[in-house]
Amino acid sequence: MAWWDNLVATWVGIPLQFRLILLFVVGAVVGGQINRAVYRWTWHPKQYDPWTPPHPEAPQRNLFDKVPIFGWLGLARESKVHGTAHWVQPLLIELGCAFFFAWYYHWIISGQLVPMTVNVPLTAAQSHAIYLQHIVLIIFMTIATFVDFDSRTIPDYVTVPGFLLGLVLCWLLPFVGLPIPSGPFFGYAAPGTQIPAIPLNAAILSPWPDSWNGAGGLAFALFLAAGWWFALCPKLVWWRGGTVKFVRYLFASFVKYSLNWQYLGMLVLLLTFVSLAWGMGGPAVWQAVFTGLLGMAFAGMLIWLVRVFASIAMGQEAMGFGDVTLMCMIGVYIGWQPVMVIFFLAPFIACVFALVNYLLTGDAYLAYGPYLCIATLVTMIFWSTLWQNYGPLMGLGWILPAMFLALPLVLGGMLMAWVWFKFRFIYPDEA
């Protein structure tokens, strides 16, 4: 990608300290727009941010209110309308984005993301492609996190553009995702051996199969893309009343709500994009797009199965569908392999936050989306260590993802046993 190489060469010509300052400023500005999205896309939109028309009872606003970070100090005067500390969270979001944009840039260009087996540094174009892709993902995850905390829902306004933009980045910048050694994959290389980094792809740790480049690979990719579209389409899923009623309601609601120019147009554009990536993009682009689609499918299917079996076991909805679309979005950026790490990390992170929240507020409800996002961020930051310690499990091949897709069934059985035990011996009066 000559255009990207030239753009990065111009950027790295700026002294590092000035680049970090610029990224700090950009992070603060982007943080302001994250706040704008959070307050507009929450279930009950709020008039907190300076880009939204003020509340009728709020004092008059001025231009300084739109200055990132510092503007919120002035907006604290609206506390009588919105609450005493309404300005603290958005100020911290903008300040956090400013520091993170600069820190994460330095983290990546200093090689901290690359496994230790790699002894050939990433080129500037490669490291900056990874940085851009990760920052885009983090922006969408930050919006999803705070919307979910606020309204306990993750709207399609966040996950759909995030997914589609992730696919576009797979085409524009094929060296995306997370870096791994070109081989040996683990341990140390022999003295004098040059080991460059390659992007994590769907076939690792095996050579890319030729069959995935053929018509069969295209058909499978189109199937995955169409499956994401169908899952996204509004429809009525009615489990009661038997199979006939289920199919009838599903089909009728799908025809009524989804067969319109908006959804059909999205399907046509999506399938066209995948077809062009296969036919015109070249091997690197096709591998990136195919890897993204497979990551989307695996991540979404894993969380969807957890949602289904946990809901059956508990007799109530255990997880919103927004968590499924969130993981679909995350999967297209990082591939299917890191999703398995996220799957294990997220519950531990959630337990810590849930315990603290329960002790402070007495609220036992858990919005799971934010912890999926935090686990994703931890996985990206500490990817080098995670790859060296847990990457060898990839040697199990297809058995590993199959085991993970079976785990939700085991989880459902464990939850069902716990529910039975709880109402049988602990709370028999509530059974």
Automatic annotation (TrEMBL):
Task: Locate the transmembrane regions by residue number.
Answer: 20-39, 87-108, 128-147, 159-180, 215-238, 259-278, 284-306, 318-336, 342-360, 367-386, 398-421
Q: Does the keyword Secreted apply?
A: no
What InterPro entries does this protein map onto? Prepilin_IV_endopep_pep, Prepilin_peptidase/N-MTase
One GO molecular function term? aspartic-type endopeptidase activity
Q: Name one GO biological process term.
A: signal peptide processing
One cellular component GO annotation, for this chain's record? plasma membrane
Residue ranges of every copy of the Prepilin type IV endopeptidase peptidase domain listed in the record = 263-355
Key words of the record: Membrane, Transmembrane, Transmembrane helix
The entry's family comment says: Belongs to the peptidase A24 family.
Please name the PANTHER family in this protein's record: PREPILIN LEADER PEPTIDASE_N-METHYLTRANSFERASE-RELATED, TYPE 4 PREPILIN-LIKE PROTEINS LEADER PEPTIDE-PROCESSING ENZYME
Name of the protein described by the UniProt record:
Prepilin type IV endopeptidase peptidase domain-containing protein
